[in-house]
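Lab meeting, item 3. Inverse folding demo.
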């Protein structure tokens, strides 16, 4: 492992030249009404905007027939400015998986992935442009952190996905967006306030939010213990996912450099406290990397760590990135890893490998776009 890149963690957002436009999704419902009054607009107009945005997935005030024409420009500027613009979409799995590449106001690129299953439709969204956690096997981490996303930019990805579902853009006709996972570009806990505002936008009942149940929202982290501890007090029982990737500190210090700050046991203890408070089982995300973290003894160690915990292991066959030495585990090694965990009574599943033929690993599509423009 000596040829791995130097570890450099980024916890603070780099300075940005131009702030993203303010969006009413950055605010709670009371603050939205206050904004309307401040602009000289009756407070109920904020409620109307929320109905259009969160119930009808319409972010264009010019089409809002219940808003006077002389107010539409103002509301477009101050309530729902354009946060994301579609650059391109690529599909896989017979159209049931679609990756969207979005351009933000400053030209920054982020990705979201919409996935339709037989029993649910899920969108995987980005919380940062890039990532500062520097995990060497991750396409996003290789590019570093550009900046945090605002709650408006994060929420806009979910609204766009909900609109695509309602319009029947996925095979099988119209459907309802049922699940949201914060597993796209970025470390959500490193953009805590904007992510929490976004989660409240997602889980608050319509018309003030999208009305998606908290149990259908998954928040992933590489193990920022201070963020997990704050989440415990939020009283929103989302599903917590810990990107562990190995049970031993020696390897994790390299694979997940944040481990140099919070060790495996500290992360699991924080997750246990979250499970105790919410009654929600947490998920252990584990990317299976050939000859790196897929040895039988690591499965044994992981089983011993988790056997008495309210946790579930989600094994993820690694989506390799072009030119990377990292690749997915051999099927027989993956099967043995599962078998050993099951001997400890640890629930384990292997994630469905969606989108391998569309640069499935998060960050690859954005990187390819930047390269093509260079």
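The presenter then showed the designed sequence:
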């Amino acid at each position: 492992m000596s040829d791995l890149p130097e570890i450099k963690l980024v916890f603070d957002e780099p300075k940005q030249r131009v702030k993203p436009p303010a969006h009413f999704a950055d605010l709670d419902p009371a603050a939205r009404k206050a904004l309307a009054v401040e602009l000289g607009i009756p407070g109920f107009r904020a409620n109307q905007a929320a109905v259009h945005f969160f119930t009808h997935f319409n972010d264009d005030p010019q089409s809002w027939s219940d808003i006077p024409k002389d107010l539409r420009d103002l509301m477009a500027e101050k309530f729902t400015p354009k946060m994301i613009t579609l650059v391109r979409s690529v599909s896989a799995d017979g159209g049931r998986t679609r990756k969207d590449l979005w351009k933000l106001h400053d030209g920054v690129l982020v990705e979201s992935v919409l996935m339709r299953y037989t029993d649910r439709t899920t969108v995987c969204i980005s919380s940062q442009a890039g990532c500062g956690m520097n995990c060497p096997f991750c396409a996003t981490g290789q590019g570093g952190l550009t900046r945090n996303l605002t709650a408006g930019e994060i929420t806009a990805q979910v609204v766009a996905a909900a609109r695509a579902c309602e319009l029947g853009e996925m095979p099988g006709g119209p459907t309802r967006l049922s699940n949201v996972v914060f597993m796209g570009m970025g470390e959500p806990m490193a953009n805590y306030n904007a992510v929490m505002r976004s989660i409240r936008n997602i889980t608050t009942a319509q018309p003030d939010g999208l009305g998606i149940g908290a149990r259908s929202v998954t928040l992933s982290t590489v193990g920022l213990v201070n963020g997990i501890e704050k989440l415990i007090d939020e009283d929103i029982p989302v599903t917590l996912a810990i990107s562990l990737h190995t049970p031993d500190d020696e390897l994790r210090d390299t694979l997940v450099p944040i481990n140099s700050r919070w060790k495996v046991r500290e992360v699991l203890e924080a997750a246990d406290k979250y499970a105790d408070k919410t009654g929600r089982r947490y998920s252990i995300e584990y990317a299976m990397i050939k000859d790196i973290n897929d040895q039988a003894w690591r499965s044994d160690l992981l089983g011993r760590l988790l056997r008495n915990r309210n946790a579930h292991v989600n094994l993820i066959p690694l989506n390799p990135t072009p030119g990377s030495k990292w690749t997915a585990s051999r099927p027989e090694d993956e099967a043995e890893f599962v078998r050993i965990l099951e001997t400890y009574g640890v629930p384990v599943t292997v994630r469905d490998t969606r989108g391998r033929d569309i640069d499935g690993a998060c960050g690859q599509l954005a990187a390819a776009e930047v390269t093509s423009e260079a």
